[in-house]
Amino acid sequence: MNSGILSYGLYVPRRRLQRSSIYEANSWYAPGLSGLANGEKAISNWDEDSVTMAVEAGRYCLDGIDRTLIESVSLASTTLPFADRSNAGIAKEALNLSDNVMSADQTGSLRAATSSLMQSLQNDSTDLCLAADRRKSKVASIQEMSYGDASAAFLTGSGDVIANYLGGYSNTIDFVDHYRETGADFDYTWEARFVRDEGYQKILGSTIKSALAKLEISGNAIDHAVIAVPVKGVPQKLAAVAGMPVEAVADPHMATIGDTGVCHPLLMLAMTLQKAKPGQKVLLASFGQGADVMVFETTEYLGVVNKRQTEFMQPGLQDTNYSRYLFHRGLLDIDKGMRAELDEKQPGTSLARDRKTVLGLIGGKCTETGVIQFPKTDLPVNTVSRATGTFEDYPLADRRATVLSFTADRLAYSPDPPSYYGMIDFEGGGRMVAEFADIEEGEADVGKQMRMVFRIKAFDELRGFRKYFWKAIPVQRGES
After folding, report:
1. Nearest-angstrom CA–CA distance, 141 and 310
2. For 155, which of 6, 178, 426, 434 could close a Cys bridge (C-beta 3.0–4.6 Å)?
3. Number of neighbouring beta carbons within 10 Å of residue 385
4. Going along 162-245, which residue ranges are E strands?
5. Could you tell me the strand order of the sheet in which 163-172 lies?
6. Residues 216-221: contacts with CB within 8 Å, 24+ apart?
7. Is 316 helix (H, G, I), strand (E, B) or coil?
């Protein structure tokens, strides 16, 4: 059986910061940004990072798929929250994958995601490749206007693939177009013309031509050219030089989402597969201290996965609150008040003991009575037998819930006030008090349908640790 792509998932945060809002706030200092002030970019909430976004894309990718088949999971990002803790391992727990899977963090280059994907495609194992970035940028910079947040996930293996992997070509060249030293917040970027001429056109251009030659595929046979270069006009020029139709060049989605870093090649590939038809050839090219090029051919199974993924791709919400964006990025120091002065220490013992409960939202179902509880308990619920230890694992993360009661609290500290929380009732049984996230005015109400998302619960700033848990967000119109 051929190796290829079995499924994919894409997560783009709901809020879209209008670039005009960035320009209006900074035009007194950087009037030259006016040419970049059109469109919008996707921005994550304060409780999101590369891990949480990758988990959301992974959930979409694995919808309807037997998770016990997955043999490895990788997470590619240049903005991993932990330097010495397996970030992919956190995602593995949140996705409720087997303890026997291999995990790996992939970083150090903007092509980390495509390199990871290429490695996975070179074997027959069933691998989950996650990619996400949440990059910071200096205020009033070109990067601030262009950087966006998103994540993507691809499941590779053999069987009923939606796209056969025809082969690829890769090279590694220490061409420094930009860099960020360990511990630094912002990228340092070299002169744009130098990067365009010596990097994109020479390195990436030659790699694309070499890949087509190696695979004995003519440029005009490519139906979709996914060239992840966030510079207007460059992908079209690279395609023309390689003999590919200019009209085959994929939309980079810079005007609506932005440059999503490591994630961007996979984001563009997912968006392209959404409109591709069976039997078409898709070229994927990425750049970063070298280049990766892969070629796929779509199959008749594409439509089934596309239909499922369309249900998850919801329209964005326009946002003009630039100061909130800066605060959530840690670029604006706001007086949080005394109510924020809490010790958020996470004991490692309790996290190890309750990792499935905390990271996987695994509750319990009694094998004798059918009672569902969260958290899982060993106490008896059968008043007749009084038996203990009758609860088996019962995942709740993918079950919808209904709001039974809620509170909008402006007294307790929240980075995005007011703080919403309440009692929710899961479909099929089970209740819990949950924090709500991504709530806009009027979206919280008794009876509202909610779904669970993996988010940051709190930051332990004293010890440099972030705590994760599950929150409830409103089900948007059109979601199944």
Report:
1. 34
2. 6
3. 11
4. 163-172, 178-179, 188-189, 224-227
5. 102-106, 72-76, 127-133, 150-158, 3-11, 163-172, 290-298, 281-287, 224-227
6. 217/166, 217/281, 217/295, 218/243, 219/243, 219/244, 219/245, 220/244, 220/245, 221/281
7. coil
How do the domains of the chain map onto residue ranges? Answer: 3-328, 354-361+396-474
Phi/psi region, residue 103 (left: phi>0; alpha: psi -120 to 50; beta: rest), is: beta
The separation between CA 351 and the C-alpha centre of its own chain, rounded to angstroms, equals 24
270 and 159 Cβ atoms separated by less than 8 Å? no
What is the maximal distance between C-alpha atoms in the chain? 78
Residue type, 26: N
Q: How many CB atoms lie within 10 A of CB 300?
A: 11
> What does the alpha-carbon distance between residue 78 and residue 140 come to, in Å, rounded to a whole number?
22
User: What's the start-to-end Cα distance of the chain, in Å?
Assistant: 33
Spatial CA neighbour of 249 closest among 238, 258, 262: 238
Q: What is the pLDDT of residue 206?
A: 96
Number of neighbouring beta carbons within 10 Å of residue 131: 31
Q: Give the C-alpha separation, 102 to 84, whole Å.
A: 17
pLDDT at 459: 94
From the number of C-beta atoms within 10 Å of its C-beta (0-12, 13-18, 19+), residue 316 rates as middle
Residue located via tokens 């262009």: 146
Q: Please give the CATH number for the structural domain made up of 354-361+396-474.
A: 2.40.50
Which pLDDT does position 480 carry in this prediction? 54
pTM: 0.96
Name the CATH superfamily, with its identifier, for domain 3-328. Answer: Thiolase/Chalcone synthase (3.40.47.10)
Q: Please name the helix (run of DSSP H) or strand (run of DSSP E) that holds residue 181, with its range, or none.
A: none
CA distance 429 to 437: 22
